[in-house]
């Protein structure tokens, strides 16, 4: 039986640049590094960066992305800081809770989001998506 998400691995084209982005800019804890990779962490997240010089650095056209949690009081300063160093944005927020959608140096789509599943479901109960069904009130 699955118990949770174990880790996330992102292919990167420049390991030092990516470690600096995730460690210095996003404040993940650097746990280990080697010639072709690094492990970083946040509470509840183990992130592996894996060197792949053949990776295309352009953002994918689809909506696949990775969202980080952030507190409401930290959100404005976080967004201001990323904008001040010209981190590219890839989308405007269209959902419940404050969100900032941005790209890492390899074009991975990321999001900083204020809220959680409970707050999202509460908002969806007020304004459900087309065809939405809820399964907790059976």
TrEMBL record:
Q: What are the protein's GO molecular function terms?
A: glutathione transferase activity
Going by the UniProt record, its keywords in alphabetical order are: Transferase
Which InterPro entries does this UniProt record tie to the protein?
Answer: Glyas_Fos-R_dOase_dom, GlyoxalaseI/FosfomycinResist, VOC_core
Which branch of life, at top level? Bacteria
Q: Kind of enzyme, top EC level?
A: transferase
UniProt xrefs under Pfam families: Glyoxalase (PF00903)
VOC domain ranges (all copies): 4-115
Q: What is its EC number?
A: 2.5.1.18
> Which NCBIfam families does the record cross-reference, listed alphabetically?
Fos_GSH
Q: What's the protein here called?
A: Fosfomycin resistance glutathione transferase
Name the source organism. Answer: Pseudomonas farris
Query: What gene codes for this chain?
Result: fos
């Amino acid at each position: 039986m699955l118990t949770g998400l174990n880790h996330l691995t992102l292919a990167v084209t420049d390991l030092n640049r990516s470690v600096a982005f995730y460690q210095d800019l996003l404040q993940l804890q650097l746990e280990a590094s080697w010639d072709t990779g690094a492990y970083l962490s946040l509470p509840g997240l183990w992130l592996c960066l894996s060197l792949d010089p053949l990776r295309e650095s352009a953002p994918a056209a689809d909506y696949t992305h990775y969202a980080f949690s952030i507190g409401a009081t930290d959100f404005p300063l976080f967004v201001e800081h990323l904008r001040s160093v010209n981190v590219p944005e890839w989308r405007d927020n269209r959902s419940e809770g404050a969100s900032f959608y941005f790209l890492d140096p390899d074009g991975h789509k990321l999001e900083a989001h204020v809220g959680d599943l409970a707050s999202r479901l509460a908002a969806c109960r007020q304004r459900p998506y087309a065809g939405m069904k809820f399964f907790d009130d059976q």
